[in-house]
């Protein structure tokens, strides 16, 4: 008998291929095979989306450090989302799978806002107070943008359809953790960069 982890290692059709005349059907088989496909394809999908975004940022900023700082909130948000889903026991499905590439596109904006505000004038020429004044409008813009996006997608968490509800929860958790990453990772790193 296979354990609970081993049951997601292969589709059901492969598991019963040695049994002559056996054909499994039904929603449970479809759900199992779909979950298998999601677990197999999600890392490739997220990696592809991150590579495309990183290439765009490299062309946009033309600076590797700024590119990495702009992507950092999105990476932090996705990591926190995976941890949240693991701790809360949420499973990946075909609907909340959409949250991952969606969040890469949404969350990278917050890093771009912060880095663009810092780049308007080279922050290495400014003192700490001037840097804070430079970043304050970007922080306000990120907060407002995140709040409206959170309200829009977060409203899905109150629907009666469990799969759609899981999308609302996933996007909400991803946005909140991305904003936290932007404010408590990127902004301090900009100050550290200034001191160096």
Topology order in helix (H) and strand (E) letters: HHHHHH
Q: Would you identify the CATH H-level superfamily of one domain?
A: Multidrug efflux transporter AcrB transmembrane domain
Give the low-confidence spans.
Answer: 1-8
The fraction of residues assigned to DSSP E strands is under 5%
What is the CATH class name of one domain? Mainly Alpha
Write the layout of secondary structure elements.
Elements: H1 12-15, H2 27-61, H3 64-88, H4 99-119, H5 128-154, H6 162-195
Helix pairs in contact: 2-3, 2-4, 3-4, 3-6, 4-5, 4-6, 5-6
Note the main attributes of this structure.
196 residues; mainly alpha; Multidrug efflux transporter AcrB transmembrane fold; 6 helices; elongated; disordered N terminus
Task: Write a brief structural summary.
The chain is an all-alpha fold. 74% of the residues lie in helices and 0% in strands. It is elongated.
Give structural notes.
By secondary structure, the protein is mainly α. It has a domain at 62-195: Up-down Bundle (Multidrug efflux transporter AcrB transmembrane fold). The chain contains 6 helices and no strands. Helix 5 packs antiparallel against helix 6.
């Amino acid at each position: 008998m296979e354990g609970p982890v081993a049951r997601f290692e292969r589709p059901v059709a492969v598991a019963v291929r040695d049994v002559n005349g056996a054909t499994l059907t039904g929603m449970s088989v479809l759900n199992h095979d779909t979950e298998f496909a999601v677990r197999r394809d999600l890392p490739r999908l997220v990696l592809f989306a991150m590579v495309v975004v990183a290439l765009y940022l490299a062309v946009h900023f033309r600076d590797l450090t700024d590119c990495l700082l702009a992507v950092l909130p999105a990476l932090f948000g996705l990591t926190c989302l995976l941890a949240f889903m693991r701790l809360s026991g949420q499973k990946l499905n075909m609907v909340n799978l959409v949250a991952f590439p969606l969040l890469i596109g949404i969350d990278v904006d917050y890093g771009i806002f912060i880095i663009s505000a810092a780049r308007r004038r080279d922050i290495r020429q400014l003192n700490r107070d001037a840097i804070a004044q430079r970043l304050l409008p970007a922080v306000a813009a990120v907060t407002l943008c995140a709040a409206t996006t959170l309200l829009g997608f977060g409203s899905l968490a109150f629907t009666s359809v469990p799969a759609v509800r899981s999308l609302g929860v996933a996007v909400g958790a991803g946005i909140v953790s991305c904003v936290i990453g932007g404010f408590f990772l990127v902004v301090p790193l900009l100050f550290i960069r200034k001191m160096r």
